[in-house]
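Review box. Two proteins, two foldings.
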Amino acid sequence: MSTTTLPTTGAQVRLGPGAGVPTVETEGQLRSILASLSGVDAVGAEARAARLATRSIKRATKWAALDLAISMVDLTTLEGADTLGRVSSLCAKARRPDPRDPSIPSVAAVCLYPDLVAHARERLEGSTVKVAAVATAFPSGRASLAVKLADVRDALDAGADEIDMVIDRGAFLSGRLGQVFDEVVAVKSICGDAHLKVILETGELVTLDNVRRASWLAMLGGADFIKTSTGKVGVSATPTVALVMLEAARDFAESTGRLVGVKVAGGIRRSKDALRYLVIVNETAGSAWLTPDLFRFGASSLLNDLLAQRLMQRRGVYVRPDEFSGD
């Protein structure tokens, strides 16, 4: 296994408030840390997520919440048919979501395949919008480490600000935790200033206990964000999974002092769902996570609905679907 360059702890790892991020030098140490985590009360987690989903946001607060959600969007296109023209349109929309209203914030990032990074970098020059690239044999994560690292280097060389890597779920579910951890550490080691988002593909992890363990494994490996999904499987982000991951990020911060972000991706299309996630963030991890630096939505169609809801707040009537571009 790889060795993290973090404060040393003993082989019998016990995490507590302010303990510092433990060094993981052996798979045994990694397993010890993950085994020390409490199990997830699945029924309780689902009930809490459902209860939080019923919280309403006052009209005076909704406008600010919509703008916050817009600023948290990773505007995404991950199709084999993506073209340079499509990416140009996406970048224009990311910079100025509604050209008629300069008060609307830019989105957080555009997310695309590595071969399109250089073009996006040119189109976003001078803006605050980041370029995120999926890598490490996205979406399956099934390739040699050498191939995965080459994929990451290509994206970084093209100018990516953020790397969205996928873990090998087959390795994780087979119990090869050291392999998965080593890959996260190896990718993080070459990222330099680029932020690393680690995609867990929670729809394939079977249990919420696995979601919690995978979240901690990724954070111990150096992830700057943990991300729910690729958006390429049947079950992507859910409020319950987001709650469990936010709890993991909160507990990790309390134990180590390091804040790790959470990104929910796949199937989030409506403003009301985005606002529900913001409530879950605030009630679970706390207001510190209510920033694009620590919470993101990976989405393509969500932005249009956020813009429509924002305009509806101003006009007092619902707007036509064709008010905004399809990009």
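Next protein.
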Amino acid sequence: MNDHPYRPTVRSQADLETVWRHLMRPLGFAEGSIWMMHLEPDGRAVPSLMEIADAELDAAGPEDFATLLAELESADPGGSYCFLRSRPGRGGVLPEDRDRATFLYAAGRAAGVRLEVVHLATDTDVVPLPLDEVGLPRSA
């Protein structure tokens, strides 16, 4: 047994997709969630992962979520934040997946934090949801 936490280094979107594939296996989800991971300024993952149920995110709203991100950033400045939406089901990207990604990108911009490419995990695959996939410009 390995007593050391999984601490990958993320230097590219491909690295991040590999990390999400590792962390989300085996694929298959009962409910929708958002998973959040923090990367240190050197790209090493902080060895903790936060899961936020879709219902909790809906209750918080984008302003409250942006405030949370800003507070997290002030407590541990630098680095970036990574998000993955998981949901049950097969198939490609759905409109609600794009809506979730848009919510996350907007909250990150409002909080002034650096976000990596948002990803989606379904029962069959993990795929990126870059800004142009959700219809947002690359810069504010």
